[in-house]
Structure prediction request, 303 residues.
Amino acid sequence: MFLTNKKTPSLQDIEMFILLAQQRSFSATADQLGVSAAYVSKNLQNLESRLGMRLMHRTTRKVSLTEQGELLLEWGQRLLDSAQDLMDAVQAEKVVPQGQLRLCSSSGYGRNVLAPVLSALASTCPELDIQLELLDRKVDLIGEGFHLDVRVGAIDQHDMICRPLRPNRRILCASPAYLNRQGCPVDVLELSTHQCLVIRERDQTLGRWALQGPKGEVSVRVSGPLSSNNGEAVRRWALDGHGIALRSQWDIHSDLKAGFLKQVLPEYYQEAPVHAVYPSRLASSAKLRLCVEFLEKHLPHLA
Prediction:
């Protein structure tokens, strides 16, 4: 490969060669670089040896370019200019929020909460190309090319950076119609005898609810006639009276206020905070830093 070819000159070699070609003097080049003339001469010899060609004619007073040297001067300058353009672009990426920003989130939170905030961000910073994907599964941020995951629930990727955005809990709920028909459980273990609306979200185990309670964590096996990997479907089924659901406060707080759903066993819950999850530190990307700080400021709090 080109990058591992030992005969390929380094940018430093090319930069010294270009300076020597411009100065046409070993001593003048050495003075400008703060090295000895012998060092400059040796560097030129090494460069010619690696390339297998003479680049300069030497005399006691000056140096002049060979035909191959003229070609290296022309293309070497283009290479250095391109390298500088690359560094300028990389540095700009650190300080100027611009370009493509790929985010992902779960379908319910992404559509109902995150999308309106990103709409406001797009109006504030039109230089961003914001791409949002809604995925109800675990995501490989690096492998799938995402800059940021706005995630609800437990984080099990210790190689990622996690920044808390909003507190949130999953709580048990059901419609008044279901509770009037089946009764309201008074003990957490009774959940195993009820129709439960089972969901497998990113951090959920299908058919088992791990809940925090007055005596610590308790795990209950649950089942029911309806299950899904989509939280919006489960919420709809709960509203329709099909069973008990474990849903996030952000998702059902308006239903609870309106009386469409009632909380069940209020002393039991799951911690499921909202985090910004990303693979690199914010200092390395202005667009990522701007997005996370915007979310911290503008994501709605529970009413």
Q: What stands out?
A: The chain has a mean pLDDT of 86. The two ends are 59 Å apart (CA to CA). Residues 18 and 123 are 47 Å apart (CA to CA).
